[in-house]
Structures are given as C-alpha cells and as structure tokens.
Amino acid sequence: MNAYTLFSGSSGNCILLCEGNTRILVDAGCSMKRISAALSCLDLSPSDLSGVIITHEHIDHTKALPQLTKHLSVPVYCQEAVAKELYLSLLEKDSAAASSLAACIRTVETGMEYELGSIVFTPFRTPHDSVDSQGFIIGDRVLGIATDLGHVSGEVRAYLSGCKTVILESNHDLKMLYDGPYPPYLKERVAGERGHLNNEACASFATHLVQMGCESLTLFHLSRDNNTPELALGETERALSELGARRGTDYTLQIAGRCEVTKVL
176-187 burial, b for 16+ CB within 10 Å, e for fewer? Predict the structure, then answer.
C-alpha cells in the first residue's frame, strides 16, 4: 500500500491511500480544484477515487464533499452523527447537493472493520470538539491515523499501539499558543481536552509508539500561527533521543507538507 498526505493544517486536511486500483481519501478539506491538482502530481484525478472516509465534520476536513458527491457520486464513510451534521448544514445552502450527499453516505461504527475495494479500515474514536470524531487503523496496523485530538485517550493509545507507520497530530507549541494573538476562549479551546494535540503530548506519545514497534512517524495538522516544523520535529526527536532511539536508524520522522504531497508509505 502507498499513502500520501496531500494537505495538512487548519486551511485543509487530506490524505490519500492507494492499494492496487483502490484509491481512498481520508478527509477532503480543500477545494476540488486544489485536490485535483494534488492528485495530478500522482497521475490521478478525482474520477479515480474509490471513496472518502471522514474523521469529523469540520470544514477543514470536508470542504470538497459536496462536489465529490454531486458530480462523481463518490461513497462517503463516516459516523452517523457526522453524516446528519453534514447533511443538515448543506441542506440550508443547497438542497440538491444535500440529497446527493445523503445518497453517497455509508455510516460506520467505531471498532468495526470495513472493506473498501482492497483497503480495510477500522475507525476508532478521538477526543475532539465535534459531534463525533474518529481516527483510523488501515489494514493490520500497517498505518494508524489520528488527525485531531485534544489528548491521547486510552482508546487512541490502544488502537495506535503496534502500528508500523503513524500519522499523528502535533498541532501547537503551548508557549506560542498562549503568547500568541488568539482570543482567550480560542486558546482554551485549542489547548483543551477536546481540542488539538500539542507538541509535548505528541512527543510523549511518540516514545510509546516507537517502543511498541512504530518505525515511521509523520507529524500532521501543524498550526500556522502556533507552531513551526522545527519546534514540532525538535520536541519529538528530543523525546525519542532521551529514550535512546536514533532518528534514521530506529525510526523515521517527518512533517506533513501543508500544501504539498508528502509520501508516508
């Protein structure tokens, strides 16, 4: 299997999974034009997609869904609460597009295994301030994905432990967040238990993942305003170094490009 991050961050999130003729997007948080351009870098187009699996309903994860379902009838896999939220919010703007979306929805339950073409995925819950939020295990722990989570819950820890490759949020540096321009309520939301994972928490969890057999980490969903790639990488590499793990020998570590294709697998 091959996996790529296409977009990462508050301006849009999108991951591509490929296995044979099966091509799946995990989230579609940018415009169709931008997603099409990213896919073209891999000699693909939206018409090649087999489906989309959605982590949660926030716009930076779902922006292109109306066009994907209206023009291409791409099946969309998500939790029932997320499906309802997406449908009702779209219904207020475009009833025809809402009907097209509803026809493409396939609801999933956490902990259950699903097959989409030649790719098998298992959803699990992540703690985030949405109606429901999930990460995914791909295959037999070939890849684990957790893009938005305020903290590492027991469920997240259990599902991601043993994954060979992990895409994990490293959203913000706490000092940059609290010293920065965000209003107090937004700082509390981002840093909260159902907000976004900070660099320190990501780094701490990374040490557990590597101890459990993870060989490759891609840091995802970095904030443009409250983080830098250097800070995120430095925090995780430092924690792993203290564990005795050496980057490039015991594990690989990279940042998902904000607006460029990054190969994960």
Answer: bbeeeebeeeeb
